[in-house]
Specification:
alpha/beta; Aldehyde Dehydrogenase, Chain A, domain 1; Aldehyde Dehydrogenase, Chain A, domain 2; 2 domains; 5-stranded mixed β-sheet; 23 strands; globular; binds NADP nicotinamide-adenine-dinucleotide phosphate
């Protein structure tokens, strides 16, 4: 039900000040108006989260797993209302949003599995060695607990899978951390529906209400107050570089600084090697445009740079890509602001003296339609003009022509940190690619071959992260089960009597958790 309220724990709150979502296809305001939360509401949500933390973090892995599964079931039970609302608020098509709903429920259930498997708890025991010379060793027991209440910022480009019940929320709740979400102002109705699904699961699972709150509003001050609140101990964010860095600054300037896991900007270089290009330039050109224009290019893993040796094969690739792109129909972008940013970015590149415009997508009528754009430049120009390596969020990409492999390496060296780097190669290219792998490891969180970076599997081995500015902290991932690591910290118990130990590290192992004992798996 959408009554325009936000959630402070179990309580649905309305205020006099309101804002609305917009249909980006028409720029029309969508009913109902949503209440704007104040900084006092943020403080109240943080207080409840802090109160809930000790109870919530000591729930059994089974109880938390069942809670995550209840959230997934509640989201599915909303039915078509959720899909229809998300379509209206984001301009994204039905199949994409139905897929995203499946992914949202799937990642909640995957974290339930992780909880039951128990490795997340990191139980490690070094047995006492009372006879050891010259000094005895104490009994040492380590486990991991949640860091505390976590602030989550919903992403505009994944209104379900990276928003209110998305990957950041699922991993934080799995870690035992209460969550306060700042809903993205572009999809308040979608956020409200999903927020209620979580709130209902909190109640049905008998958990303290402060385990989850959702504050909404269109101004920076809410998010700023949330990150500054002393009870918040970590932040998950997906969005712009400016927004992410603003939150990092707030977090670093607190009396107690806290980690911010911000996923911000990436141009995801794609390298085409000579044998692969010679064998299938046209097929690669078509597939590239397919990946580039998917979802109007509004993916953090969108292929923004293609890098290859200049020559006739690259020309064939570029000509096919240009033809395909010229036929790409304009698609509605997520918000008028994102569309305006995209148009501005494309206009700047198109007007850049060092860049040639190879093709523009079909023109269309209607609001906020993103027209795809394909550019080309040389490696020397790309290196000399670092602004060309900045993300233009949307379906815009630059083909960079290098004269030799040294230039390819120089381009990669000059680039900032990336979420992904992609290689298209055949067997005959392997020795050319080999020296670049260590360089790519320094630059990117995920290196893939003969595929396209859009499409991120939610699984155990996935890394969706990378050096700055791909993220603000390259030691982790925001997609996949390893995302739970961001919200856990180790505690060691030295010679604490068994009766005082928490269940995960008690000698009898009542929770049946996997353990490392004296350096070996039990
Ligand atoms: P955004 O402007 O960074 O906003 C994301 C969230 O952060 C919103 O909830 C926003 O809420 C909050 N926020 C932003 N700046 C803040 C600040 N200084 N202090 C406190 N809170 C702040 O991202 P967006 O609206 O999704 O899109 C804008 C641009 O971000 C796009 O054009 C694109 O360039 C980039 N983007 C990148 C990715 C990616 O995956 N790389 C994804 C989405 C967007 P309020 O504005 O209400 O404060």
């Amino acid at each position: 039900m959408m009554d325009g309220s936000f959630l402070i724990g179990a309580r649905a709150v309305t205020t006099d000040e309101t804002f609305t979502g917009f249909d980006p296809a028409t720029n029309e305001a969508l009913d109902p108006p949503f209440s704007v939360a104040t900084v006092d509401h943020v403080a109240e949500a943080c207080r409840l989260a802090d109160e809930a933390f000790d109870t919530y973090r000591e729930t059994t892995p089974e109880a938390r797993a069942a809670f995550l599964e209840a959230i997934a079931a509640n989201i599915e039970a909303i039915g078509d209302e959720l899909i229809v609302r998300a379509m209206q608020e984001s301009g994204l098509p039905r199949p994409r949003l139905e897929g995203e709903r499946g992914r949202t429920a799937g990642q909640l259930r995957l974290f339930a599995r992780v909880l039951r498997q128990g490795r997340w708890a990191g139980v490690t025991i070094d047995s006492a060695l009372p006879e050891r010379q010259p000094l005895p060793r104490a009994d040492l027991r380590q486990r991991r607990i949640g860091v505390g209440p976590v602030a989550v910022f919903g992403a505009s480009n994944f209104p379900l899978a990276f928003s209110v019940a998305g990957g950041d929320t699922a991993s934080a709740l799995a870690a035992g951390c209460p969550v306060v979400v700042k809903g993205h102002p572009a999809h308040p109705g979608t956020s409200a529906l999903v927020g209620q699904a979580i709130r209902d699961a909190v109640a049905a699972s008998g958990l303290p209400e402060g385990v989850f709150s959702l504050v909404q509003g269109p101004a920076n001050e809410l998010g700023a107050a949330l990150v500054a609140d002393p009870r918040i101990k970590a932040v998950g964010f997906t969005g712009s570089r400016g927004g992410g860095l603003a939150l990092v600054n707030i977090a670093n300037n607190r009396p107690e600084p806290i980690p911010v896991y911000a996923e911000m900007s990436s141009v995801n270089p794609v390298l085409l090697f000579p044998a692969a290009l010679a064998a299938r330039a046209e097929a690669l050109g078509k597939a590239y445009v397919g990946s580039l224009t998917l979802g109007s290019g509004q993916f953090c893993t969108n292929p923004g740079i293609v890098l290859a040796l200049a020559g006739p094969d690259l020309d064939r690739f570029a000509a096919t890509a240009a033809d395909a792109l010229a036929e790409a129909q304009p698609q509605v972008m997520l918000t008028s602001g994102i569309h305006a940013n995209y148009d501005r970015g494309v206009t700047e590149i198109a007007g850049h003296g060092a860049v040639e415009t190879l093709a523009r997508g079909a023109e269309g009528t209607g609001c906020n339609r993103g027209r795809a754009a394909l550019f080309a430049t040389t490696a020397a120009n790309f290196i000399a003009n670092p602004e060309l390596a900045h993300e233009v969020f949307g379906a815009a990409s630059i083909i960079v022509r290098a004269d030799n492999l040294d230039e390819v390496a120089q381009v990669l060296t000059a680039m900032e940190g990336q979420l992904t780097a992609t290689l298209h190669l055949d067997d005959a290219d392997a020795e050319l690619a080999r020296p670049l792998i260590p360089l790519l490891e320094r630059k990117a969180g995920r290196i893939l071959a003969n595929g396209w970076p859009t499409g991120v599997e939610v699984s155990y081995a996935m890394v969706h992260g990378g050096p700055f500015p791909a993220t603000s902290d390259p030691r982790s991932t925001s997609v996949g089960t390893a995302a739970i690591e961001r919200f856990l910290r180790p505690v060691c118990y030295q010679d604490i009597p068994d009766v005082l130990l928490p269940a995960p590290v008690q000698q009898a192992n009542p929770l049946g958790l996997p353990r490392i004992i004296d350096g070996d798996p039990e």
